[in-house]
Amino acid sequence: MDENPMVALARAYHFAAARHVHQRRKGEAAEPYMNHLTEVAELVAVATRGSDPEVIIAAVLHDTVEDTETTLDDLRVQFGERVAGLVAEVTDDKLLPKQTRKDLQIAHAAHASRGAQIIKLADKTSNLRALATSPPKDWGDERIAEYVDWAGRVVDACRGADRGLTAEFDKAAGVFKAAVA
Ligand code: ZN
Questions:
Q1: Is 66 within 8 Å of 85 (Cβ atoms)?
Q2: What is the predicted pLDDT for the residue at 117?
Q3: Ligand 1 center from residue 120 Cα (angstroms)
Q4: Which of 2, 90, 108, 126 is least surrounded by CB atoms within 10 angstroms?
Q5: How many angstroms is it from 164 CA to the middle of ligand 1?
């Protein structure tokens, strides 16, 4: 990356905020979607100690292709090949049925690049934290348990990517196990 990484990171935050401007999280609290992206980026930045700015930038942008009109080409032009590639690795094909997408996430996690695995670990950690503090109104215990189980299986496929983040995930998942026990 030729650009100063701090400048690229600032651009990524602004880009994501503009693209996700009308989205909110699914939980009852309905926080701005951007809060999810800042949390995932922080988890990634702390875990990697800022050593790989492009992975943090990709973390900020990780849902732009899946959830907004953004294309991988847009990301390639704005943020370069590697960032676009990382986002591609963590983007579901929305043309596929939901269960297939969920199965593929588990299958793909094991073969993803380390950067993409780190983003996945942070994403699932953020999602479980949100599910614990503010579950969607129409989600019963069974649906929550199913999600926690599935997220655990995605994480199991890429545990080796980062110990600290894996521990953060286990902590977030532990809240649900304590609730069941
Ligand atoms: Zn996400």
A1: no
A2: 98
A3: 8
A4: 2
A5: 19
Mapped to the 3 state alphabet, what secondary structure does 22-73 carry?
A: CCECCCCCCCEHHHHHHHHHHHHHHHCCCCCHHHHHHHHCCCHHHHCCCCHH
Q: What is the mean pLDDT of residues 45-67?
A: 97
The residues that are catalytic are 66-67
The pTM of the full predicted model, rounded to 2 decimals, is 0.96
Express each pLDDT in 118-133 by its tens digit: 999 999 999 999 999 9
Q: Find the 67 Cα to ligand 1 centroid distance in Å.
A: 9
Count helices and strands (H / E) in the chain. Answer: 10, 0
Is pLDDT at 181 greater than 90 in this prediction?
A: no
Cβ neighbours, 10 Å, residue 66: 14
Of the candidates 77, 36, 86, the one whose C-alpha atom is nearest the C-alpha of residue 57 is 86
